From TrEMBL:
The lineage of its organism: Bacteria, Pseudomonadati, Pseudomonadota, Betaproteobacteria, Nitrosomonadales. This is 3-isopropylmalate dehydrogenase. NAD(+) binds at residues 73-86, 283-295. It comes from Sulfuriferula multivorans. It catalyses: (2R,3S)-3-isopropylmalate + NAD(+) = 4-methyl-2-oxopentanoate + CO2 + NADH. Catalyzes the oxidation of 3-carboxy-2-hydroxy-4-methylpentanoate (3-isopropylmalate) to 3-carboxy-4-methyl-2-oxopentanoate. The product decarboxylates to 4-methyl-2 oxopentanoate. It is found in: Cytoplasm.
Length: 358
């Protein structure tokens, strides 16, 4: 199994290094894993003038799975849009056809007090958001900023994007979401804005159509504004959610906070054959980069998702997840999840602790 390791920017290299330690343990035990590292995002721009250098894309295409840290940083903000780190991330998702983005929000009981919500609202939370990742207003054409005449007889600049979904795009992510719901609580909530947007109207129709193939799954529909409210009000009503790219981007950040820290949550982005890219859902946190204080657990848990979804090795996935649970129950905390009475550790100490448990 070949894994392309793309650390990226900011805290990316530090957190990815901890996840690589976990892979090293598995390799030492005899797992046939090969890793190769390449730059992406700002690091790609620095190395090759491109946030997704050709060599990086080639490596990612040839690999069985991709492990990614994070991209972005203030030093790249002034670059032309196509050269910005985020473009590298969006392009690799599109180039590898990673249309199904799985973002779990799981609350570790010991971290209930780190959530900004009352413990009884979030305790036992176990939610999966399936976000469509290669369509929607993120990629729809036309898009741009141009000068247009205005009704007052003058002209001014307008910015525009196109929210667009083809039925086939909705259908394939629907199948992934129903499949996941089948393995979980058999409840799927499709989030849209069908009271306003045609794009959502079609989304909803296709969801209903696909639901006929999964009679055991209870499908419900919710408008995105209500879904945002319900996630904060009573998040445990949800089991599996499915939504488009932009709504999923926003809702998954909200959901992440329910679990105490965005530093705990992994993600998987899968293509039709379950080849995937695995990354923490948090960003590059430039403010703490290089200080060895970031939380590596989301990245380590991303390796667990790699084992679960791409390598279909559930026992190794469980084992990594259990090791993370153990270090949490041992009271070890990076500063983002630290509370009184627990032991503050650095990023690398947290990685070492997971390795020790493994
Ligand atoms: C995410 C991020 C990205 C997105 C950015 C960095 C382009 O917010 O993965 O959620 O909007 O998809
Ligand atoms: Mg986001």
């Amino acid at each position: 199994m070949k894994i392309a390791v793309l650390p990226g920017d900011g805290i990316g290299p530090e957190i990815v290094a901890q996840a690589v330690k976990v892979l090293d343990v598995l390799r030492a035990e005899g797992a046939k894993i090969e890793t190769e590292t390449a730059p992406i995002g700002g690091a790609g721009y620095d190395a090759a003038g491109d946030p997704l250098p050709d060599a990086t894309l080639k490596l990612a295409r040839e690999a069985d799975a991709v492990l990614l840290g994070a991209v972005g940083g203030p030093q790249y903000d002034a670059l032309d849009r196509p050269l910005r780190p985020e473009r590298g991330l969006l392009r690799i998702r599109k180039e590898l056809n990673l249309f199904a983005n799985l973002r779990p929000a799981l609350l570790y009981p010991e971290l209930a007090s780190a959530s900004s919500l009352k413990p009884d609202v979030v305790s036992g939370l176990d939610l999966m958001i399936v976000r469509e990742l290669t369509g929607d207003v993120y990629f729809g054409q036309p898009r741009g900023i141009e000068v247009r005449s205005n009704p007052a007889g003058g002209s001014e600049r307008v910015g525009f994007n196109t929210m667009l979904y083809a039925e086939s795009e909705v259908r394939r992510v629907a199948h992934v979401a129903f499949g996941i719901a089948m393995k979980r609580g058999k409840k799927l909530c499709s989030v849209d804005k069908a009271n306003v947007l045609e794009c959502s109207e079609l989304w909803k129709e296709v969801m209903i159509e696909v639901s006929k193939d999964y009679p055991e799954v209870e499908l419900s529909h919710m408008y995105v504004d209500n879904a945002a409210m319900q996630l904060i009000r009573a998040p445990k009503q949800f089991d599996t959610m499915v939504t488009g790219n932009i709504f999923g981007d926003i809702l998954s950040d909200a959901a992440s906070m329910l679990s105490g820290s965005i530093g705990m949550l992994p993600s998987a982005s899968l293509d039709e054959n379950n080849k995937g890219m695995f990354e923490p859902i948090h960003g590059s946190a430039p403010d703490i980069a290089g200080k060895d204080m970031a939380n590596p657990l989301a990245t380590i848990l991303s390796v667990a998702m790699m084992y679960r979804y791409t390598f279909a090795d559930l026992s190794t996935a469980d084992r990594i997840e259990n090791a993370v649970k153990t270090v949490i129950s041992q009271g070890l905390r990076t500063s983002d999840i630290w509370t009184d009475g627990t032991q503050k550790v650095s990023c690398s100490e947290m990685g070492d602790a997971v390795v020790k448990v493994l």
